[in-house]
Amino acid sequence: MSTASHDDVVGRYVRVEVEGAEYDVFYLEAGQGQPLVCQHTAGCHNHQWRELLRDPDITSRYRVIAYDLPRHGKSDPPNNTEWWTSEYRLTTDHFTGFVVAFCDALALDDPIFMGSSFGGNVALDLAHRRPDRFRAVIPVEGADHAPGFFLDWWQHPHANAAQVSASGTWDLMAPQSPLADRWKTWFYYTQGSEAFRGDLYYYSVDHDLRGRLHEIDTDRCPVVMLTGEYDYLTTPEDGRRTADGIPGAEFLEMSEIGHFPMSENYPRFKTYLEQALDSIATKTGGGAG
Amino acid sequence: MTSAGATTAVDRFRELSDGDPEIQAHGRYFSCTYLLDMIEHRFLVRMHRGEVEELVTDPGPLEPYDFAIRAGRETWEGFCSEVPPPMCHGIWSATFQRDMTLEGNHLVIMQNLRVLTRQLELLRITGPLG
């Protein structure tokens, strides 16, 4: 009899096709109930959701699914293109198309989508484009527009790109967050520098909902936004302004936390996440919550 | 002219930096010179292989450096506090959202970003150098 101490998180691969690109996508999942699909931040991978996946308070009610976006973690670049011959720039069409295709591939019924940073921005784009496909979205550290981070420094050949990506995002975390969790997040960022800049093309350039927020229908797809007070990229002011532009959207400012809340300080993030999930359950007629 | 208080903070900063395990472990290529343009004084920090080779208060006008970090009083006071308030908590946040500027050769900043970030966080212990 094995004495190994396993948790309940399992990892699998699934084939997903988007705009002609064929991907083998790795995802982690745990729990049962209402699907809760989680997107990591730019240049990172699904381990940012490690504590959520292991939290029985959540997994007893939600089927938590955290995937690696193609080109991140264990999800390779496309199988069927010579991707190394072109510059990677993620677009809104490709990103939203991927999330929907992933949910279709897993036959997820009415999932809640939650993402942070560029995942928060794509949560807004999903609510805008596909309110029919998602029960609700939780944009974490998202905004209608987030300029300023599509920088060549992330891939500059004269600097250590891994360290620049990791230490360049260090200040996005709050000084109150546990040091060990901040360093785990830093460590993940050393692993994703090659995709980081291309992700940020979407984050800072292609994603732009200015003037269109009012088109998001929160009766069909409720929106609950969460933003940390130490986030200098999508500040609480940005989050509040964005939520104010979406009729029916909610906004919660999270104190003493930054741009990677689920990874830098999960216990603190959890208190706000539970409020968001409870609000969604109330708005959408029970279930989970 | 250097005040007694500033001298104490400068000495403490130098001592903390040279004794810091993270800088010792990862700073063997940390060789550059930078200027901290602080509240009352300017400080030239000359690093060599992870150690403070020289720390000059109010250097002369022709002292060369690779880059300078400048900010106003309020930003530096926040930056150098034990728990910095939001947007004062690092060189990225303070340049994006406050009046801090990074001037000079940005490539040198990026090449040394890991240990530089750690070294500047020692200011949370010393307080402003002056």
Structure description:
The complex is a heterodimer of chains A (about 290) and B (about 130). Chain A is built from ten helices and eight strands. Chain A is of the alpha/beta class and about 290 residues long. In chain A, the strands form two sheets. Chain A has a six-stranded mixed beta sheet. A two-stranded parallel ribbon of chain A has the order 7-8. Chain B starts with a helix and ends with a helix. Chain B has a single domain, classed as Nonspecific Lipid-transfer Protein, Chain A, CATH 3.30.1050. In chain B, strands 3-2-1-4-5 form a five-stranded mixed beta sheet. The interface of A and B includes residues 153, 229 and 233 of A.
Search tags:
heterodimer; A: 289 residues; alpha/beta; Rossmann fold; six-stranded mixed β-sheet; two-stranded parallel ribbon; 10 helices; 8 strands; 18% strand; globular; B: 130 residues; alpha+beta; Nonspecific Lipid-transfer Protein, Chain A; five-stranded mixed β-sheet; 5 strands; 42% helix; disordered N terminus
Encode the helix/strand succession of chain A as letters: EEEHHEHEHEHHHEHEHH
* Beta strand % of chain A: 15-25%
* Major sheet attributes of chain B: 5 strands, mixed
Widest sheet: strand ordering of chain B:
3-2-1-4-5
Identify the CATH homologous superfamily of chain A: Alpha/Beta hydrolase fold, catalytic domain
Radius of gyration of chain A: 18 Å
**CATH T-level topology of chain A:** Rossmann fold
Number of helices of chain A: 10
Strand order of the largest sheet of chain A: 1-2-4-3-5-6
- Specify the overall morphology of chain A: globular
Architecture per CATH nomenclature, i.e. the level-2 architecture of chain B: 2-Layer Sandwich
Query: How far do the termini of chain B sit from each other?
Result: 11 Å
Low-pLDDT parts of chain B are: 1-6
Assign the structural class of chain A, choosing from mainly alpha, mainly beta, alpha/beta, alpha+beta, or little secondary structure.
alpha/beta
| Secondary structure: number of strands of chain B | 5
Name of the CATH class of chain A: Alpha Beta
| CATH homologous superfamily descriptor of chain B | SCP2 sterol-binding domain
Order of helices and strands of chain B: HHEEEEHHEHHH
Which residues of chain A form runs of ≥5 with pLDDT under 50? none
How far apart are the termini of chain A?
37 Å
Protein name (chain B): SCP-2 sterol transfer family protein
GO molecular function (chain A): hydrolase activity
Domain AB hydrolase-1 (chain A): 35-265
Keywords (chain A): Hydrolase
